[in-house]
Amino acid sequence: MSTKVSRQLMRECIDALLNESARRHRKFTETVEMQIALKNINPHKDKPASGTFRVKHSMKPNFKVCVIGDPEHCDEAKAEKVSCIDMDTVRLMRKKSSVAKRIIKKFDGFLASTTIIKDVTNLVGPMMKRMGKLPLPLAHGDNLHEKIHEAKTTMTFQMRRVLWLAVCVGHVKMTTDMLSENVDAAIRSLLTLLKKDWQNIRSIHLKSTMGRPQRIY
Fold first, then answer.
1. How far is CA 203 from CA 21, 35, 36, 80, in A?
2. Does one domain contain both 124 and 84?
3. What is the pLDDT of residues 47-92, one digit of tens each?
4. Which residues of 44-63 are buried (b: 16+ CB within 10 A; e: fewer)?
5. Residue 21: CA count within 13 A, CB half-sphere
6. Cα(159)–Cα(174) distance, integer angstroms
7. What are phi and psi for residue 22, nearest 5 degrees?
8. Per its UniProt record, what InterPro entries does this chain match (predicted)?
9. Cβ atoms of residues 64 and 107 within 8 Å
10. In this structure, are residues 171 and 34 in contact, taking their beta carbons and an 8 Å threshold?
11. Domain membership of residue 90 as a residue range
12. Is residue 211 in some structural domain?
């Protein structure tokens, strides 16, 4: 368990969050977000930090992955019924920002063939980075389903010039243990990005999409 965060308090907060969601019977699966308030940071002078980290469990119940592929990977994706786009679509995204935004918003994560990933990042990388969806590399010989699982369990911290950030850590159909493991991994990852560790954290809350925030630190 991450230091300074009580295991018992975290479990109690997660239980309260899950119980509240179960009582309301939403017609969709709520995601669970970790919200962090920061301190002792000058957002106008300090360079915003960012990083990509793995957690143990998939963070969204219907996580949609798209392969940005060369011809071979596009053929493989189609055979496995996985969404894919080719370089012609990427070039169109470069020309029309509305198309780029629509495609990037449609999917939760992306994989890109290593043979074209440099071209992809040069053309649409800045927009994908702003939306926290830079593609993971997909090499020939990689198991496509294993790489999809990697995408589903990869989280990105993208700090902007504000003293607050949030990241999805799971959903309400997960167990308390599963959410606890993801939250713990997320906190440990966050600490590696902060210059003063816990001295840069004012508070941490967990919140479902429609629920009340639960403070764990």
1. 23, 8, 6, 43
2. yes
3. 777 788 999 999 988 899 999 999 999 999 999 999 999 999 999 9
4. eeeeeeeeebebebbbeeeb
5. 25
6. 27
7. -65, -35
8. Ribosomal_uL1, Ribosomal_uL1-like, Ribosomal_uL1/biogenesis, Ribosomal_uL1_3-a/b-sand
9. yes
10. no
11. 65-153
12. yes
